[in-house]
Amino acid sequence: MAVREDIAETAVAATPRFGGLTVPAWQRLITIAALLVALALPLFLKNFHVFQLTLVMIYSIAILGLNLLTGINGQFSLGHSAFYAIGAYTTAVLMDRFGVPYFLTLPAAGIVCLVAGFLFGLPALRLEGLYLALATFALAVATPQLLKLSIFEHWTGGVQGIVIIKPDAPFGLPLSQDRWLYYFTLAILVLMFAAAMRLVGSRTGRALKAIRDNPLAAKAMGVDTALYKSLAFGVSALYTGVAGSLGAIVVQFVAPDSFTFFLAVSFLVGLVVGGVGWIPGALIGGIFIMYIPNLAEQVSKGLAWAVYGVILILVIYVMPTGAAGFVRLVAGRLNRLMSSNR
Question: In the predicted model, what is the mean pLDDT of residues 79-107?
Answer without folding.
Answer: 96
